[in-house]
Design brief:
Layout: E1 4-18, E2 25-27, H1 54-62, E3 67-70, E4 94-96, E5 101-103, H2 109-119, E6 122-127, H3 134-145, H4 151-158, E7 169-172, H5 187-204, E8 209-212, H6 219-226, E9 235-243, H7 253-256, H8 259-278, E10 286-295, H9 310-325, E11 330-335, E12 345-348, E13 351-354, H10 358-365, E14 371-378, E15 381-385, E16 410-414, E17 416-422, E18 427-434, E19 441-448, E20 453-462, E21 481-488, E22 492-497, E23 501-509
Parallel strand pairs: 1-19, 2-3, 2-11, 3-6, 6-7, 7-8, 8-9, 9-10, 10-11
Antiparallel strand pairs: 1-14, 4-5, 12-13, 14-17, 15-16, 17-18, 18-23, 19-22, 20-21, 20-23
Length: 511
């Protein structure tokens, strides 16, 4: 049987956008073993002197985590940061409303910042816009970043932290549109209230970057929420959990291949909302996909390591490729979560397991350049019935004119996905994914224009014969990064790429 073929055309001298490596961020929330028994476990012999699991921190470093978001998530809408600072023995133990648990507050602001410093990630704090106040948020910024002789800066010093934490990124509440959130707000109410929070926080430290709470499938919400304070903020958030809290089916690989395109539609809605809210076409505000995962937290077997297979890894890689390809509009992202629950790491008493999707972060976060260049793919495609991007606005009453008749929503899903970046050292990184379930692919790389690679091109692959291959504790990992050697780089190259595989081809630009 003839092998399927594809062509990838790359123009190295056509730069499209700067790539912000904050897209390789992750998420930390007080829920289901993410913090306690995950990253923080003082009683465990594998923990360091600050009570943090040294093996978990090492895996976060290895995956080049650039940004960590905290403390939520739903948890934040009734979180009072002063409960989680100072001597641990004097911290309040409280009922936690989001997940109906008891919260010791033994892990708080200082512990989170310490985690970030140990990992090399930027801290990103989200303020309580549910039961919290403007003044409380203002004081949190002062506690973290204050340098003067003021109460909250001195409170931090009294807790043993002379130097400020210099927290740069701050979220203005979490999912305040949702019935599941403490003190849900309408878009108009949120915009008015968020403006007061933003003003106060910026008055304390005008260098901070602010993230508006967005709703990924409603331009109406985004415009109304963003319009009152667009000049003061830098990002608007979007969230996705495609399976469990979304429109996609868990074990349908071909169905899930559409997830990145579904997200791109929502990303385009956010971009349009930014333009309308600013009343200007400049692209200053970026989209922050600050909660994303293929799985939600309510999927059957969410804590079973066997639930996280090669299929999950491939979709995760496709989403990361989507972020890179949309570098002009996507400014940050946070995988939710990274530790336990639906995360890339499964923490045990005596060690840590890297689930299938972990190696995707390891591969891409360590092999993506700072500049996106033009890459185009010619290949075959699956034609599939795909989920609609559900609108939050009712369609006009045009049934009598037969203009509102429901039809199947079909789309082509190309077999091959590719994105190319370069760095200042002249390294070229091609993230190349063969999505085809059954066929290897003969792929020709053609470098257009005057620039081309030279020397050897190294190839790394994430592949297993079984799309449901997974990693289990105590067993040889079935889904891992494999070094596939090298080939001669040049103006034109032809590679055979395995079916359902993620590949990184690294080359160097000719001098």
């Amino acid at each position: 049987m003839a092998m399927s073929k594809a062509k990838v055309s790359i123009q190295l001298d056509r730069a499209l956008a700067d790539v912000d490596h904050l897209i390789f961020g992750h998420f930390t929330e007080h829920a289901f073993g993410n913090v306690y028994g995950g990253v923080y476990d003082p009683a465990n012999p594998l923990s360091d002197g600050d009570g943090m699991r040294a093996d978990v921190l090492e895996k976060l470093r290895q995956a080049n985590a650039t940004l960590l978001r905290y403390p939520g998530g739903n948890f934040v809408s009734n979180y009072h940061w002063e409960d989680g600072v100072g001597p641990r023995e004097s911290r309040k133990r409280v009922f936690e409303y989001a997940w109906h648990t008891e919260e010791s507050n033994h892990f708080g602001t200082a512990e989170f910042v310490a985690e970030c410093r140990k990992v090399g990630a930027e801290p990103y704090l989200c303020v309580n816009m549910g039961t919290g106040t403007v003044e409380e948020a203002m004081h949190w910024v002062e506690y973290c970043n204050g340098t003067g002789n003021t109460y909250y800066a001195n409170l931090r010093r009294s807790h043993g932290y002379e130097e400020p934490f210099n927290v740069k990124y701050w979220g203005l509440g979490n999912e305040m549109y949702g019935d599941w959130q403490m003190c849900k707000l309408s878009a108009e109410e949120y915009g008015r209230r968020a403006l007061e929070f933003a003003k106060a926080m910026k008055w304390v430290d005008d260098s901070i970057k602010l993230v508006v709470c967005g709703l990924q499938d409603s331009c109406d919400w985004n415009v109304d929420a963003l319009k009152p304070l667009y000049s003061m903020v830098d990002y608007i958030s979007a969230h996705v959990y495609a399976v469990g809290w979304g429109a996609f089916k868990r074990d349908d690989y071909l169905d899930n291949l559409y997830v990145p395109t579904f997200m791109e539609k929502q990303n385009n809605m956010a971009k349009a909302s930014i333009i309308v809210a600013q009343n200007d076409d400049e692209n200053r505000i970026k989209v922050a996909w600050d909660e994303w995962n293929l799985f939600g937290w309510v999927v059957d077997g969410v804590n079973d390591d066997r639930s996280y297979d090669l299929q999950n890894a491939i979709i995760t890689a496709l989403i990361l490729n989507f972020f890179i390809k949309n570098a002009d509009s996507v400014g940050m992202a946070n995988y939710s979560t990274f530790v336990n629950i639906n995360g890339a790491l499964s923490v045990k008493e005596d060690g840590v397991l890297c689930r299938a999707q972990y190696c995707v972060f390891d591969l891409l976060a360590n092999n993506t350049g700072s500049l996106l260049v033009d890459t185009r793919v010619q290949c075959g495609a699956y034609n599939r019935v795909v989920p609609r991007n559900a609108s939050k606005r009712k369609a006009p009453g045009t049934d009598a004119l037969l203009l509102n008749k429901e039809t199947e929503n079909r789309a082509d899903i190309p077999f091959v996905d590719a994105v190319t970046t370069v760095d200042q050292q002249g390294n070229i990184y091609l993230s190349l994914i063969n999505k085809h379930l059954e066929e290897d692919m003969e792929i020709t790389l053609e470098f257009m224009g005057d620039e081309a690679p030279t020397g050897e091109a190294s190839i790394q692959t994430i592949y297993a014969e079984d799309i449901h291959a997974c990693n289990e504790m105590g067993k040889e990992p079935q889904v891992r990064i494999q070094d596939m050697g090298s080939v001669t780089a040049g103006k034109t190259m032809t590679l055979t790429v395995k079916k359902h595989s993620v590949n990184m081809i690294k080359m160097h630009m000719a001098n």
